[in-house]
Amino acid sequence: MASIARRNLFEDLPRFLIAQAGITFAVSLITIQAGILQGFTRSTALIIEQSHADLWVASDQMEHLELTEPLPLSTVTQAANVTGVQRAEALLMGNGRWYSGQGSPDTVRIFGFDPQGKLFVPGTLVEGSIEALLAPYTVLVDRSNLRSLRITGVGTTARIRSLPVEVVGITQGTQSIAASAFVFASLPTAKAYSTAGLTSQLNCQIRDGDLQCTNVYQQDTAPLTVDPSQPLPPLSEADPISYILVQAAPDQDLASLSQRLEAALPGTRVYTREAMAERTRRYWQDRTGVGFVLGLGAAVGIIVGTVIVGQILYASVTDHLKEFGTLKAMGASNWTLYRVVLEQAVWMALLGYLPGVAICWGVKTWALATQGILILMTPGTLVGVLVLTVGMCSCSAFFAIQKVTRVDPAIVFKA
User: Fold this and answer.
1) Pairing label, strands 198-207, 210-219
2) Phi, psi at residue 170, to the nearest 5°?
3) Contact (CB, 8 A) for 235 and 191
4) What pTM value is reported for the model?
5) What does 206-257 look like in DSSP terms, one character per residue?
6) 36 close to 295: Cβ distance less than 8 angstroms
7) E strand map for 230-327
8) 20 FRET partner, CA 20 to 30 A, in 64, 159, 283, 375?
9) Tens digit of pLDDT for each residue in 134-191?
10) Could you count the other beta carbons within 10 Å of the beta carbon of residue 381?
C-alpha cells in the first residue's frame, strides 16, 4: 500500500510541487508567527532574567518592567538594613530623545545603575567596558540599535535632550522588541539625561469659581555646554528610582524575606526574578493585541495549508478512482484505502515541513543579525509545528476519504 500512496503522490509532479509550496508557506507562516510571539514576550523580560538579583522590589502600582511608579532612593538603604538582605542596589529608568545630528531624533529608554554594582547586568558586553560609565555623560548601547541610533561604535558622540553623549561600550542581548532603544548609564548620568532641559511652570485658572493650578512641563532641547571632566553630583535620598534589586544572604528563604521587605517598605511589592519576568511577559502577551494578531496570522497559515492539501488530495483520489475501485473489488477494506490517502497526506506534511523550517531558520538568523528581532525557535516549537502540520494534512484528507468510501467497485468494468 505504501508504494501506491507514493506513486499517486509523485505521478503528477507539477501538482505535487504546488501542494508542497502551499504546505511550505503554511509551515513558514505558523513557525515564524509562533517564533515572533515567543521571541517578543521573551525579549520584554531579558533585562530581568539577566540580572543577578534574587528579588525585585517595586511599587505596588507596577504593571510590568517599564510601567511602574517611582520609589525614593532612601528605600534602598532601608531595604539593605532588612534582616536577610546581603546587598541592595538601585535601578533608575527614564526616557530621553537621542539626537545624532543625522535625521530626526529617536526616543530612548535610559537605564541607570551602579557600574561598580553586582546585581544589574546590561547584557553581554562586546566592546568597551562597564567601568567607563563612571565618567559623566557616557553610555552603553545595545548592538541591535546601532543603525536606528546612527552609531558606528565606541567613541560615537551624540546628545540626549540637551546633554552630550559618548558611547563607551556596545552590549547585546538586552533590547525588548516592544520598547524604544535601550541605553545604559550610571545613576547620576541617567538622572541628568532624564531631567535635562525640563522646566515646570505653575499654570492657574479659575474654573467654576475654584482656583485650579497644574504644573506645565516644557522641554528645552538646545545643546548645553558642560564640562565632561567634572563629576556629576550623586543622587539625593529624595531622588526617584524605579526598582530596588536585592541579593539575599546565603540560605535565606525568599518568601520570608519578601514578606519582611514589604513590611519594612510600605507601598511596595517584592517579586522573585522569575516572577518579575513572568509578570512582564504576561502583560505583553495577555493585555495587548500582540498575541491575538500573531495567532491570527498562524491561523491563516493553517487554513491556507489545509485548503491546498485538501484540494490536491481530492483531485488525486478523483484521478485514481478506478484504482481504488479495483482494490475494493479485490476485497480491500475501507481502512486499507484510507491508509493510502492518509499516507499521502503524511508524506506531503513531512516534505513540506522540512523546507518550511529551513526557510524560517534563515529568516530568524537574518532578523537577529540585521534588525535585532528575536524569533524564538525552540525544540518544543518545532515539534509542535510538525505535529500541527501532520494534523493539518491529515484533516485535509477527510473529503478525499469520503469520496473513497463511496467508490463503487463496478466502476472498474465501466467503459
Assistant:
1) antiparallel
2) -120, 130
3) yes
4) 0.76
5) EETTEEEEEEEEEE--SPPP--TTSPPPPPPTTSEESEEEEEEPTT--HHHH
6) no
7) 240-241, 243-248, 268-272
8) 375
9) 999 999 999 888 888 988 889 899 989 889 999 999 998 888 887 889 999 999 999 9
10) 18
